[in-house]
Specification:
heterodimer; A: 317 residues; mainly alpha; B: 335 residues; 76% helix; peptide transport (chain A)
């Protein structure tokens, strides 16, 4: 432990002092970043995840076949011209998987934003304002936990109003709808956690001091309380990505997920579930990509959690 | 404590009413259950209005809901409405599905909990050992896989094993693994045969459920155990010269049990609502499968019946989680 974590700004060191002073104080985020980059599994996860994102969004567009190219020969085994083989209408699986991964990642990002955003705002409101706001939000959380997510999903996919609202151009964007309802049905645990943290933080002296200085509620919540929950927020947002990818796959499997012309890794797997024994690559390649996304994100989340935890002993800052 | 429990139950009643109404409204948004039937072949207006009157769909949403609620509180959960499977009572179907799901879920949940706690505790006590890394890696891999893929792979493995068993023994009755739900007429034959059938029917869905649940529990148990092991009173106990086993089990473990008890009870409440994927893949007609089927067939009363019974369990196990928490940690007061 060579560094000093100081909440107050260090006074500029005098020239004489700096001769003897071999250590400089690191900012808190520098300490966290250092801890994160010393966490081998997390850094590995980060590299894999960035590589997957680049592959999905760039690899697909520079690849020699487009996802619209069909009749390239049915069920060509992986290798040579088609590294991932071809499917039952002669589509190039590499192009398909890249496009599926694009959609899966887009969905996951939207879900992470919605679930974290909703969870943080509602949780903070409930925890800080207490009283009837808290009662209302807590009952709303209970309600969302009781309503089956599948019913919400089915209602949202069939509602013509939402289909119109999420249209981009002439094409419906079914993936956005899927992202919306996964987001709307998975913010509750974040909200509960944040609510609990805010409930205890609002009683702390520094919040009382801010209140005594006349800071408005908005400032107290956003400047004083929420920064203290940033670790939970970031870790949850990261893990939400992994959960969303898996949830989307499960929904596609029971027919309530993404639908053609949009696609996703989950949809690719479910479309090829009967090819399992005869043409296994059609099932296993998208499967491996789902596992890679989710595994790398889980490792990143774990590394972040450790990096944010001041009690962590093993990874020296 | 008693007053707390009563109050919690009373609070949840209006919540259930709102939830049931919302659920009913959502099923209406999903579509008209008679829509497809109308388009199958030309129907006379009289035929159509008769069908709508029979299902109650000639009335607007609110009266329909009130009508359902009136019957529901008297124990009549309504009937299925779509032609083709019209007139089936909802209540017995839901109760059947509930038993099917419980048989599957209770056993696998217990196995997952025991395995998870065991691996979590060992992982925490021997932190950063090979065992810990192995268990962590395995747990991460398990919950990074889509459950339906695990299920499909298991199912396929089961079929391969069956083929192998049949080719070795040359007898089709030796196909051990069942991939299409529990036998309809129960288990038959001598005790040996019954065990054979029982394990064959349960093994795959149980492995499937355990694999994910145990990964979750082991991570939770490891985290909470580490948290406790790093506390001062544990160091004090070690400094006094108490044996490591005694410190781990007597001093640390009891406190590390608190978070996992809560998680397990919440999880259990949610699982009673159906293990959708596992039931679908392995052909168990439990709550989850029934829900998916009812949603696809647009059966409003079936969906509502399932939702209400699931909701009661979610509320109940939420309450159990809180009471258990207060019971295990005397510092927490419920009032």
């Amino acid at each position: 432990m060579t560094d000093v974590i100081s909440p107050v700004a260090q006074p500029p060191a005098s020239p004489e002092a700096s001769q003897f002073d071999t250590t400089t104080a690191r900012k808190q985020w520098q300490v966290i970043l250092r801890r994160f980059f010393r966490h081998k599994a997390a850094v590995f996860g980060m590299i894999v995840f960035v590589a997957l994102v680049l592959l999905a969004f760039i690899g697909g567009s520079v690849w020699k076949y487009s996802y619209t190219d069909l009749n390239l020969g049915r069920y060509v085994t992986p290798g040579g011209d088609h590294p991932f083989g071809t499917g039952h209408i002669g589509e190039d699986m590499f192009a398909q998987v890249m496009r599926g991964m694009q959609f899966s990642l887009q969905i996951a990002m939207v879900v992470a934003v919605i679930a974290t955003g909703l969870g943080v705002v509602l949780g903070a409101l409930a925890g800080y304002l207490r009283g009837w706001v808290d009662a209302l939000i807590s009952r709303f959380i209970d309600l969302m936990l009781v309503l089956p997510a599948l019913v919400i999903a089915a209602a949202m996919t069939r509602s013509t109003f939402l289909l119109e609202a999420t249209k981009t151009g002439s094409q419906g964007s079914n993936w956005l709808l899927v992202a919306l309802y996964i987001g709307f049905t998975s913010w509750m645990s974040v909200a509960r956690t944040i609510r609990g943290m805010v409930l205890s933080l609002r009683e702390k002296e520094f919040v009382e001091a801010a209140r005594a200085l006349g800071a408005p509620t908005r400032r107290i919540v956003f400047k004083h309380i929420l920064p203290n929950t940033i670790d939970v927020i970031i870790v949850n947002a990261t893990l939400a990505i992994a959960q969303a990818v898996l949830l989307e796959a499960a929904l596609s499997f029971i027919g309530l997920g993404v639908q053609t012309p949009d696609t996703s890794l989950g949809l690719l797997i479910s479309q090829n579930k009967n090819e399992f024994t005869i043409h296994p690559w059609l099932f296993f390649i998208p499967f491996v990509f789902i596992v890679l996304i989710s595994l790398s994100v889980n490792f990143i989340g774990d590394g972040l959690r450790d990096a944010f935890d001041p009690r962590q002993k093993r990874v020296k800052a | 404590m008693f007053r707390y429990i009563i109050r919690r139950i009373l609070i949840s009643i209006p919540m259930l009413i709102v939830a049931s109404f919302l659920c009913f409204a959502l099923t209406s948004v999903m579509g008209d259950p008679l829509g497809e039937w109308k388009l199958q072949k030309p129907r006379t207006p009289a035929e159509i209005s008769a069908a709508y009157a029979r299902t109650g769909y000639d009335k607007p949403l609110i009266p329909r809901y009130v009508n359902w609620a009136e019957h529901f509180v008297q124990g009549d959960w309504g009937e299925t409405v779509t032609p083709g499977n019209a007139g089936e009572k909802v209540k017995p179907k839901v109760i059947d599905a509930f038993w099917t799901t419980s048989k599957l879920v209770i056993g696998s949940e217990i196995i997952a909990l025991i395995l998870g706690m065991l691996i979590g505790v060992i992982g925490a006590v021997r932190q950063y050992s090979i065992f810990d890394y192995g268990a962590t890696g395995f747990a991460f891999t398990m919950f990074s896989m889509p459950l339906f893929c695990i299920a499909l792979i298991l199912k396929n493995g089961g079929i391969q094993l069956n083929n192998w068993l049949e080719s070795v023994t040359g007898d089709a009755s030796n196909r051990w693994i069942v991939t299409s739900g529990p036998p309809v007429g129960g288990f038959t034959g001598g005790i040996g045969q019954q065990i054979f059938q029982y394990t064959g029917a349960y093994i795959l869905p149980t492995i499937c459920l355990v694999s994910v649940q145990f990964a979750l529990y082991s991570r939770f148990q490891r985290a909470s155990m580490l948290d406790v092991l790093n506390q001062d009173y544990v160091r004090t106990a070690q400094a006094k010269g108490i044996s490591q086993a005694r410190v781990v089990f007597k001093h640390a473990y009891r406190n590390a049990l608190i978070p996992i008890a809560t998680v397990a009870s919440l999880n259990f409440g949610a699982l009673v609502g159906g293990a959708v994927i596992t039931e679908t893949v392995f052909g168990w007609s439990g709550m989850g499968k029934l829900l998916v089927d009812s949603i696809t067939k647009l059966e409003p009363y079936m969906v509502l019946g399932l939702m209400m019974s699931t909701a009661v369990f979610v509320v109940l196990f939420n309450l159990i989680a809180d009471v258990l928490y207060a019971f295990l940690d005397p510092r927490i007061r419920l009032d």
